[in-house]
């Protein structure tokens, strides 16, 4: 297999020789073979990237000063260049993090262009400013200004879509961006940089500096950054929030989850299983909003435990590049061992009905694993596992199900399943969480996504996601001035 090698960094609109000397080696989690490398960014590279983003933002004729329709033209070119690379983007994501290729093709390949167009449309469809007749004699000119240079720090699990949850609204709003991808998924970020070059993004509007946690922390605290947008673990989010608190720097945090999938006692199981898989085990269990606590009514307990067990047993585990694969490997040996640690705990906390093993000698695979008879206080019900492991928790009444769902440190996703949509929506309204699905769960671009409690601060997607990259400004017009 040919490996994918880069020896330059995309900074200031062009490929430059990195200041750092290290390399990030990327390995396939399925075969453990080396699949490519990129230069490891150093602090001087972050300095250069922030300086380029700063210059592109601050120049009198810079990106921030452009009319929204002119930025939209550039972003449309960017969208087209990304679409021209969509299949390769999906392949790289799948090869690096084990995402099944059908999912990468459906999601990672298309979401970036979709979001660029959506946010360009929001910006061009709304007036940039308004004059409000005042109550005290004058009028007020109210505008939304881009917030400035954005540090975007992303994880490896859905790297392209998550990057564009930040890049698309930020660039459409007139901000400039320094992206720090996770070390596990740098090759797709470099393909995105190739698309940016081909699209002719003005110098400094987007910059990519790959590195680990230390480099991320350096970027977060950099004096040239105006806003931090982070997706990742709750532990890292807390560290970033501390830095931003000290600096009084605006920050958006999309963190972990331990959401509940509430199956009401009238659920139509056979009609629900496919969507239930997508809501609980998608991407090998490595998505923050998955409903990994499945709440099962006692009056249909055995039937539902059996059905979910059979569902898990039937999932094809294997090569993520095989279109038939439903469960690929976890991203790394570290993640595999972490998940195995939770499975060992689960054996003491519940009854394992299927899974629990490494199905192959090589690669970081774990079989889909189901624990029945789990209490909501168990470790495997409280902590985010980030693997294909579900806790099935019995409950009596709808009230009890709602109470269990809400008894969590997290509040990111969730779902309610019922043959009666009104009943399900009524339950969904009472779930304390940023998002809840009824009989399915899909992050629609038009609606805000984000968490409460330890799942984070702020929202992405929807107009609310754009607002995170804007600040309001008021000019008090002279008394009597009608504009
Ligand atoms: P992680 O927090 O270890 O790393 C995420 C990114 O942050 C990486 O780029 C990493 O290099 C960087 N980073 C880590 N510590 C940092 C620090 N102190 N300062 C600056 N940057 C730092 O997370 P991970 O293990 O890569 O990803 C899995 C986690 O991400 C899970 O907990 C998952 O729930 C969460 N996640 C959340 C969402 C969401 O939208 N809420 C989406 C996807 C993943």
UniProtKB/TrEMBL annotation:
Pfam families according to UniProt: Aldedh
CDD domains for the chain: ALDH_AldA-Rv0768 (cd07139)
Single GO molecular function: oxidoreductase activity, acting on the aldehyde or oxo group of donors, NAD or NADP as acceptor
Superkingdom, taxonomy of origin: Bacteria
Keywords: Oxidoreductase
InterPro entries to which the protein is assigned, alphabetical: Ald_DH/histidinol_DH, Ald_DH_C, Ald_DH_CS_GLU, Ald_DH_N, Aldehyde_DH_dom
PANTHER family linked: ALDEHYDE DEHYDROGENASE, ALDEHYDE DEHYDROGENASE-RELATED
Family label: Belongs to the aldehyde dehydrogenase family.
Protein name listed in UniProt: Aldehyde dehydrogenase family protein
Organism: Mycolicibacterium hassiacum (strain DSM 44199 / CIP 105218 / JCM 12690 / 3849)
């Amino acid at each position: 297999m040919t490996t994918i090698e880069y020896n330059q960094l995309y900074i200031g609109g062009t490929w430059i020789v990195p200041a750092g000397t290290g390399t990030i080696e990327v390995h396939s989690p399925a075969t453990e073979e080396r699949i490519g490398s990129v230069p490891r960014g150093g602090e001087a590279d972050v300095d250069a990237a922030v300086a380029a983003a700063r210059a592109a933002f601050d120049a009198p004729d810079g990106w921030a000063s452009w009319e929204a329709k002119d930025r939209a033209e550039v972003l449309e070119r960017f969208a087209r260049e990304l679409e021209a690379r969509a299949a390769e983007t999906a392949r790289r994501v799948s090869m690096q993090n084990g995402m099944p290729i059908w999912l990468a093709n459906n999601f990672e390949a298309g979401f970036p262009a979709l979001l660029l167009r959506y946010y360009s449309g929001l910006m061009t469809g709304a007036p940039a400013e308004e004059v409000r007749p005042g109550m005290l004699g004058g009028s007020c000119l109210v505008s939304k200004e881009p917030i400035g240079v954005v540090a975007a720090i992303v994880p490896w699990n859905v790297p392209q879509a998550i990057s564009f949850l930040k890049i698309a609204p930020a660039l459409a709003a007139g901000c400039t961006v320094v992206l720090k991808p996770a070390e596990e998924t740098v090759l797709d970020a470099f393909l995105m940089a190739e698309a940016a070059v081909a699209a002719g993004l003005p110098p400094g509007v987007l910059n990519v500096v790959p590195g680990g946690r230390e480099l991320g922390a350096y970027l977060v605290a950099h004096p040239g950054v105006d806003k931090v947008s982070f997706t990742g673990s709750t532990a890292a989010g807390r560290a970033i929030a501390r830095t931003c608190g000290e600096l009084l720097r605006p920050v958006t945090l999309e963190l972990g989850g331990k959401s509940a999938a509430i199956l009401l006692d009238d659920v139509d199981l056979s009609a629900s299983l496919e969507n239930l898989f997508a809501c609980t085990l998608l991407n090998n269990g490595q998505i923050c909003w998955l409903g990994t606590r499945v709440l099962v009514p006692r009056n249909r307990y055995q039937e539902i435990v059996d059905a979910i067990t059979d569902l898990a047993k039937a999932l094809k585990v294997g090569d993520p590049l095989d279109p038939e694969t439903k469960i690929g490997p976890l991203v790394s040996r570290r993640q595999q061992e972490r998940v195995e640690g939770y499975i060992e705990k689960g054996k003491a906390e519940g009854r394992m009905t299927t899974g629990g093993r490494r199905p192959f000698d090589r690669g970081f695979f774990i079989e889909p694993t189901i624990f029945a008879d789990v209490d909501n206080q168990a470790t495997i019900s409280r902590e985010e596992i980030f693997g294909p492991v579900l806790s099935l928790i019995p409950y009596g009444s709808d009230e009890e199900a709602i109470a269990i769902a809400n008894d969590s440190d997290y509040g990111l996703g969730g779902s309610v399943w019922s043959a009666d949509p009104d009943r399900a929506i009524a339950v969904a309204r009472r779930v304390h969480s940023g998002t809840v699905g009824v009989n399915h769960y899909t992050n629609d671009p038009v609606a805000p996504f984000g968490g409460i409690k330890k799942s984070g601060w702020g929202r992405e997607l929807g107009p609310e996601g754009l607002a995170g990259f804007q600040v309001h400004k008021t000019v008090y017009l002279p008394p009597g001035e009608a504009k």
